[in-house]
Amino acid sequence: MKDKFYYMKMALDLARKAGELGEVPIGAVIVKDGEVLSSAFNMRNQKGMATAHAEILAIEDACKKLGDWRLDGAEMYVSLEPCPMCAGAIVNARIKKVYFGAFEKKSGAVFSNFRLLFKGGLNHVTDAEGGILEKECSDLLKEFFLDKRKV
Amino acid sequence: MKDKFYYMKMALDLARKAGELGEVPIGAVIVKDGEVLSSAFNMRNQKGMATAHAEILAIEDACKKLGDWRLDGAEMYVSLEPCPMCAGAIVNARIKKVYFGAFEKKSGAVFSNFRLLFKGGLNHVTDAEGGILEKECSDLLKEFFLDKRKV
Question: Closest Cα partner for B122 from A106, A49, A145?
Answer without folding.
Answer: A106
